[in-house]
Every structure is written in structure tokens, then in C-alpha cells.
């Protein structure tokens, strides 16, 4: 690489600048915040500045002369969209300058990637006494085409930002101080790989563009289109790089030739994951599995499609996971990042000032893709160990630092809207009873718009169980009083997954929701009465999950596990009863991997799944014994000719991959009921037109359930608008049908009479019904307006 040249003078000056910061800053964290802005690989004019925090080099007493920045340039243009390729790389080792644990190098002639071209790849390397080179990967990389556990690509982020199609959206927000985004009115949550047939960010962006064109031209909308309408914000599940295959294959495999070149076998990342199994490294960029073009520009394009949507712009809310790392993070980061194991993998060392600074810098760079809001996953997991008191403390200071980060896009500084998922004292056994869901809100008094997930939005909500709504009535009363800063709604990625894990033989299932378990689950999480409660009654910000509103299946999807993959599938096996019937399994394209392994029918797989969870438990997950016992079942189980540990792992992977395909929303669109999608869209439009509903119940508002119960739960709610209008809603949540009643008779005494008119009726109530006596059944609801 003759064009590449090391800039010794500039590198030395950067190292000296770092030393001055460390010497003069108020404290190490303040210094770390400044230095973190120079870390990673950043294009500055005709040069690229490389910066690493590598405390392990101090631990191991590695000398300066044995440390280099490794530059790898592919021979010819590298096609990153190929599933597999053999590539040769030229290799150059750049000298470095060190300042304590920080390492810098500046070079001209480095090729930076962009939308049209692939750039050079890089890592920090060090040489041991035997001449062996070991890589230290860049956790702040902005492009990782082969995942976070492989060399990163130098990427021209500045040009990506300069070319973004929504610059005018951000420029219109510019003011003297940072613009502060407020809460949206409602949110659509979705999982990129199952949201469209293409399963990529680019595919979803095209769908948003198409929908926008139809809206702009006044064209009719199909039920599939209506699923995306009525929301002013979209929240994808996490977009960060996730774990890789535990047992291989690796996405980057290489050998060093005698001539000093790198010969590599490259594999396009193709894991299936629900998004929360992250390794912390690479959090500033995008999971390559989600990128059709392998270019992170796709996320900018998606943000722009939302921001430029005709009529009302839609906000982008990013879901970030900084409360834990999968154990694979140990292979991507220095041990200095970690504070010890937890139930997910590893705790992060938030007390280390440089770790703290780098994590915040990762967040800043990610949100600068153009997000209007941030959802923080598992905020109760941000903890540090108080040695003096010998107890864990919640790091609320760090959460405040997260929400206080100033972003900058298109020259506009802004503060995103923040929502935290926090169920503390979870995982204590009494968390469902003792959690207030207000801990973060009450701590972050500097921002009145900080939100949390509310008590009916957190995990373990099962609205298909009889008496669910009455048993949660105490939580509903809390929502009415405190819900203005809560996310509401019962259907999200976590609650729908938990619902599929309920054993239907052990609980009293609400069979009035449907004739089959699939129908019951679908209607429980896409329920007209529940949605009336959420959109026309409850304060806060409603949120729906696309797989729920599309009545598509959903579950825990992760095919990277080798050690515990069979155990995870055993735990998920019960979802077969809830989400897959004989007809669905028989469709040729469904469950093709399992069928190829011998499970030709649903009954074949169901019989295997009856044995597997029991054997996992009684053998204490001894795979050899499980395989032997499965092979001894009489009559023999369907599936492999001979059960072995290897075959069990193949079955587990096949289940995950088949379920991933089965959960794709595109497979369910032709089954959508236009009456249901149309009603739900009208309900969301109603909320958009009445944003005042976000506020808590006032003194004139009322909420009650009809008494006597008589085998059914009927909620009646009255709310008063600031302009004098009144909204009255009646919802049949569960149980027997009512006798013929006039809904307006359920109004409080002082509100009866007047010009009440019906404005929304749930599916199943004829359009000819305008008021008066009616028999209400499970899941029916009505909304009236007066004034």
C-alpha cells in the first residue's frame, strides 16, 4: 500500500494532547469523556485518526515498539453482500504513540468506506516475545461487516451524515440551545428481521417509502398498510451487533502467508436473534445481519424515511442495551470492561471512569444516526458494588448521564426523548408486587419528560388468563394516577414471548377469546377492548408490537447457542401448543428444516417436545443421557435415525431458524381482517387527535368496573378534555356476555344526559348501532363523545 503513510508528528501531538487532558481534567471521568471523542477510526480530511483504550497492554507490560495499528486492504473491490468469499488482504502495520492506556496513530492514504465503496479494515495488534501477533478490536467501530468479533472497516461517517435525506427535518429544529424532543403520542415496536419479507432495514425503509407515496397520493390502504398507520414513532428492537455462533463457523477466518499477506475466508453474518444478546463492542453501529447492502447508511435512510413521512413526521426511537453483555463480550473487549458474571452473562464496570466514558460515547455515536428518542433496556441492571456496605447499588447517576447526552445531526444539537425499562427491585422474588415502575422517573427530576415502561407493559403479563384484569385492577388504578410518564399497552416483544411460555394445562385460559389456542393468543394481544382501554382511556404513551397487531407468531429467537441451545429450546417448546397448529405446520414452506430432519408432521414434533423438557429437568441437562433416553423411547420418536448430542443441537438450531421464518409478518398479511385493522387504525388516529389523553386522570375523571361482577369484567371510564369535550368508554374485558344494557347508563350521575354520540365501536358491533341497549361480549368496546 504505497499510498498509505504514517504521520508521526500529528500522532505525537495527539498523544501529548491526551496527556494534557489527563493532567488537567477535573477527574478521570471528565478526562475520559474528552478522550473518548477521539477514539475509534475517524476520517479527518485526508487522514484517518485511530485511537484505542487498551489497558491490557499495560497489564502485560507490552513495549511501544511491539504495538501497531494493523491496516488490511482487500485485493480488488470486496463484495460484502456475498454469502461467502475468499479474499486476499495487503497488510500494513502502523507505528503508534501511547499515553498511559491510550494508543494513537494517524495516517494518510487510508481508504475509508462509504455507501459505494468498501474501505480498509483495521485493528490494534501487539507482538509477544515469540513474534505472535494478537488483535485488539475496536469497540467504537462504525462499520463491522463481519460482526463485532472481526476486524472493523474504516468508515466515512461525516460523508454519510452530509448526504442524509432528512437534513431539513433537523435544521428546522435548530435554536440557541439544544432542541428537546418530547414524547410521541403512540409507538409501533417491531423486530427488523421479521417485520418484512426482506428482513433488513433497507426492506423496511422501502415499505415506509411505499406507504408514504400512497398516503401522499390519497390512495386506498390495505390492511397490511394500516398496521403502520396511526403511530408517530417507530421503535425497532436493538440494532446492535449480537453474538456469533458459539461453535462456529466464524465470519472471518484467516491465515498469514510468507509474503505477509492475509488470506481470509469471509462469511456474511447470518445469525438469527431477537436483538438483546449483545457483546457491547460495536454498539455505535449497526448489526450487519440487518443490512441488505452491508452499509450502515441504511439506518440513516430509515430515519429519513420516517422523518420525511407525508403529513406528520414519524420519530425513530432506538432500543439500546448497556445493562449487560453476553459472555461472548469477553472475546471482544478487555477484561477491564467487566465487573463479574450475572444471569445474562457479564456485568459492566460502570465505576471504571474510562469504561463509563466509552459506553456513553458509543451511545452518542449510535443516536447520531438520527434517532429522536432512546429506549434503555433493563435499566434496573445498571449497578455497582458498594464494598463498604457489601451490597449492589443502582447507578442512577449513569442513567442521568445517558439522558443528558447532547446529540448533533445536520448541525442541530438536541436532547432525545428517553424511556427506561426498569422493574426494580427485579429480580427479587416480590418484584411484581413491590415495583413502583417510577424509580427512574423520580430520580431524573431534571427532565419532566423521562418515561418508564408501565406495569402492564413489563414482562409476565398474560391477558388471556381468566381474572387477569380484575387481578391487575390495583395496577390500573396506579396507571390512572401516575401513568402520564409510562408506556402503556400489554403487547410487546417481552409480554408476547412470555405468553407463549404459559402452560395452558395449568392455568384457567379465557376460552371466550377463541376456539383454538392460536386464536386465543392472537386476540389476547390484539384485543379491541384492551386497545380502547389503552388508546381512549389510559394516560401515558401507548405502544403496540407489530407481530401482535399482525397476529403473527413470536418467541425467543436465537440460533447461536451451542452449550445451552437444547435447554433453551426445551423451555420454548410449549410455544408449539400456542402458535403452531396442524395446518400451519403442514404448509410446505413452514418448518422445512425440522421436516428434513424427520419431523414430518406437527404431531411428530409435539411428541418429541413432550419428552425433551422433562428429560432436560430430570437429567439436570446431561445431553448424553438425554440423547440415550430419547433413542430408547417406544414406539420410536420421529426425527433423526439415531439421537446423539450432535443431532440434538441440530434440532435446536433448526427449531430456532424455522421459528424465525415462521414469525415473519409477511406470512400473515393475507389473513388480516380489514374490520380489525381498520378499527385499530381509527383508534390510533383518535389518540393522535386527542394527545391530551396522555395526562393523568383529573378530579372530574372516573374509572370503575361494573358491579356486581356476575361473571364478567366491564370497565367504564370518563375523561374530560381541556376544550370541554368528554370521552366515555365502555370495555368488556373478559367473561360472560351482559344482559341488554344501555352503555350510557354506566355514566356517573352528574354526566348523564346531553349530546352523547358514538364515535368508535369495536368489530362485531354492527354499523347500524348508534347507541341504546346492547348485549356486550368479551372483547367488545364502545367510545362516546359529548360536548
Description of the molecule:
The chain is of the alpha/beta class. Among the domains are: 5-160, Immunoglobulin-like; 565-662, no CATH class; 694-786, Golgi alpha-mannosidase II (Immunoglobulin-like, Sandwich), CATH 2.60.40.1180. Helices cover 30% and strands 20% of the residues. It is built from 27 helices and 32 strands. The strands form 7 sheets. An 8-stranded parallel barrel has the order 12-13-16-19-24-25-26-27. α20 crosses α26 (645-662). The radius of gyration is 28 Å and the shape is globular. The chain starts with a strand and ends with a strand. The model has no long low-confidence stretch (mean pLDDT 96).
Gyration radius over CA: 28 Å
Share of β-strand residues: 15-25%
What is the number of beta strands?
Answer: 32
Bin the helical content: 25-40%
CATH topology of one domain: Immunoglobulin-like
Shape: globular
Largest sheet at a glance?
8 strands, parallel, barrel
Overall mean confidence score, pLDDT = 96
Structural class: alpha/beta
Identify low-pLDDT runs. none
Helices, by number, come to: 27
Superfamily (CATH H level) name of one domain: Immunoglobulins
Assigned CATH class of one domain: Mainly Beta
* Spatial arrangement of strands, main beta sheet: 12-13-16-19-24-25-26-27
Distance between the termini: 76 Å
CATH architecture grouping of one domain: Sandwich
Pfam family, one: GHL5
Question: What would the keywords be for this entry?
Answer:
single chain, 787 residues, alpha/beta, Immunoglobulin-like, 8-stranded parallel barrel, 7-stranded antiparallel β-sheet, globular
Amino acid at each position: 500500500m504505497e499510498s498509505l503513510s504514517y504521520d508521526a508528528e500529528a500522532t505525537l501531538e495527539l498523544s501529548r494532547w491526551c496527556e494534557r487532558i489527563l493532567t488537567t481534567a477535573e477527574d478521570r471521568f471528565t478526562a475520559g469523556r474528552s478522550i473518548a471523542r477521539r477514539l475509534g477510526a475517524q476520517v479527518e480530511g485526508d487522514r484517518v485518526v485511530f485511537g484505542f483504550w487498551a489497558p491490557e497492554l499495560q497489564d502485560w507490560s507490552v513495549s511501544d515498539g511491539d504495538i501497531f495499528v494493523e491496516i488490511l486492504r482487500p485485493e480488488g473491490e470486496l463484495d460484502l453482500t456475498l454469502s461467502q468469499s475468499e479474499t486476499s488482504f495487503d497488510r500494513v502495520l502502523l507505528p503508534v504513540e501511547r499515553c498511559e492506556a491510550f494508543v494513537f496513530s494517524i495516517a494518510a492514504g487510508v481508504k475509508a468506506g462509504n455507501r459505494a465503496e468498501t474501505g480498509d479494515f483495521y485493528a490494534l495488534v501487539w507482538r509477544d516475545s515469540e513474534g505472535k501477533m494478537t488483535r485488539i478490536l475496536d469497540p467504537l467501530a462504525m462499520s463491522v461487516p463481519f460482526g463485532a468479533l472481526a476486524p472493523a472497516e474504516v468508515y466515512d461517517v461525516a460523508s454519510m451524515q452530509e448526504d442524509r435525506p432528512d437534513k431539513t427535518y433537523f435544521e428546522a429544529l435548530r435554536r440557541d440551545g439544544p432542541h428537546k424532543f418530547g414524547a410521541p403520542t403512540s409507538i409501533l415496536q417491531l423486530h427488523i428481521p421479521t417485520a418484512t419479507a426482506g428482513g433488513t432495514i433497507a426492506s423496511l425503509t422501502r415499505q415506509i417509502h411505499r406507504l408514504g407515496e400512497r398516503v401522499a397520493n390519497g390512495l386506498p390502504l390495505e390492511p397490511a398498510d394500516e398496521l403502520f398507520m396511526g403511530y408517530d414513532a417507530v421503535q425497532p428492537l436493538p440494532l446492535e451487533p449480537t453474538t456469533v455462533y458459539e461453535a462456529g463457523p466464524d465470519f472471518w477466518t484467516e491465515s498469514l502467508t510468507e509474503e505477509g499477506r492475509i488470506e481470509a475466508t469471509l462469511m456474511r453474518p447470518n445469525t438469527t436473534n431477537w436483538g438483546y444478546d449483545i457483546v457491547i463492542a460495536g454498539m455505535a453501529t449497526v448489526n450487519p445481519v440487518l443490512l441488505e447492502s452491508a452499509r450502515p447508511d441504511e439506518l440513516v435512510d430509515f430515519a429519513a424515511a420516517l422523518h420525511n413521512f407525508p403529513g406528520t413526521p414519524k420519530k425513530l426511537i432506538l432500543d439500546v442495551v448497556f445493562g449487560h453483555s453476553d459472555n461472548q463480550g469477553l472475546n471482544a473487549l478487555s477484561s477491564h470492561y467487566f465487573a463479574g458474571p450475572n444471569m445474562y452473562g457479564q456485568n459492566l464496570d460502570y465505576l471504571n471512569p474510562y469504561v463509563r466514558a466509552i459506553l456513553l460515547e458509543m451511545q452518542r455515536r449510535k443516536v447520531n444516526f438520527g434517532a429522536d428518542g432512546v429506549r434503555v433496556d433493563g435499566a434496573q441492571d445498571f449497578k455497582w458494588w458498594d464494598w463498604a456496605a457489601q451490597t449492589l447499588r443502582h447507578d442512577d447517576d449513569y442513567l442521568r448521564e445517558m439522558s443528558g447526552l447532547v446529540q448533533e445531526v445536520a448541525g442541530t444539537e438536541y436532547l432525545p426523548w428517553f424511556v427506561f425499562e426498569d422493574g426494580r427491585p427485579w429480580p427479587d422474588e416480590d418484584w411484581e408486587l413491590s415495583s413502583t415502575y417510577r424509580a427512574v422517573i423520580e430520580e431524573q427530576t431534571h427532565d419532566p419528560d423521562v418515561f418508564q415502561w408501565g406495569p402492564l407493559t413489563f414482562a409476565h403479563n398474560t391477558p388471556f388468563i381468566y381474572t387477569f384484569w380484575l387481578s391487575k385492577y390495583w395496577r390500573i388504578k396506579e396507571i390512572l394516577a401516575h401513568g402520564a410518564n409510562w408506556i402503556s399497552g400489554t403487547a410487546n416483544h417481552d409480554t408476547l414471548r412470555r405468553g407463549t411460555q404459559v402452560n395452558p394445562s395449568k392455568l384457567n385460559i379465557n376460552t371466550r377469546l377463541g376456539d383454538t389456542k392460536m386464536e386465543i393468543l392472537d386476540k389476547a394481544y390484539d384485543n379491541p377492548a384492551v386497545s380502547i382501554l389503552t388508546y381512549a382511556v389510559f394516560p401515558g404513551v401507548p405502544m403496540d408490537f407489530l407481530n401482535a397487531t399482525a397476529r403473527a407468531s413470536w418467541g425467543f429467537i436465537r440460533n447461536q447457542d451451542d452449550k445451552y441451545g437444547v435447554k433453551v429450546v426445551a423451555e420454548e417448546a410449549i410455544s408449539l401448543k400456542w402458535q403452531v397448529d396442524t395446518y400451519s405446520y403442514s404448509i410446505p414452506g413452514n418448518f422445512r428444516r425440522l421436516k428434513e430432519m424427520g419431523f414430518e408432521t406437527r404431531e411428530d414434533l409435539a411428541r418429541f417436545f413432550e419428552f425433551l423438557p422433562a428429560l432436560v429437568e430430570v437429567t439436570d441437562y446431561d445431553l448424553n443421557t438425554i440423547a440415550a433416553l430419547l433413542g430408547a423411547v417406544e414406539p420410536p420418536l420421529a426425527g433423526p435415525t439415531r439421537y446423539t448430542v450432535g443431532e440434538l443441537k441440530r434440532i435446536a438450531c433448526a427449531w430456532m431458524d424455522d421459528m424465525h421464518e415462521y414469525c415473519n409478518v409477511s406470512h400473515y398479511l393475507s389473513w388480516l381482517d380489514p374490520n380489525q385493522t381498520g378499527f385499530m387504525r381509527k383508534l390510533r388516529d383518535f389518540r393522535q387527535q386527542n394527545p391530551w389523553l396522555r395526562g393523568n386522570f383529573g378530579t372530574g375523571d372516573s374509572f370503575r368496573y361494573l358491579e356486581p361482577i356476575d361473571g364478567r369484567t366491564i370497565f367504564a371510564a370518563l375523561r374530560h378534555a381541556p376544550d370541554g369535550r368528554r370521552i366515555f368508554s365502555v370495555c368488556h374485558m373478559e367473561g360472560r356476555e351482559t344482559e341488554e344494557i344501555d352503555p350510557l347508563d354506566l355514566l356517573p350521575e352528574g354526566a348523564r344526559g346531553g349530546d352523547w354520540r358514538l364515535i368508535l365501536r369495536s368489530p362485531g358491533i354492527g354499523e347500524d348501532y348508534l347507541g341504546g341497549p346492547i348485549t356486550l361480549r368479551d372483547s367488545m368496546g364502545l367510545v362516546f363523545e359529548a360536548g
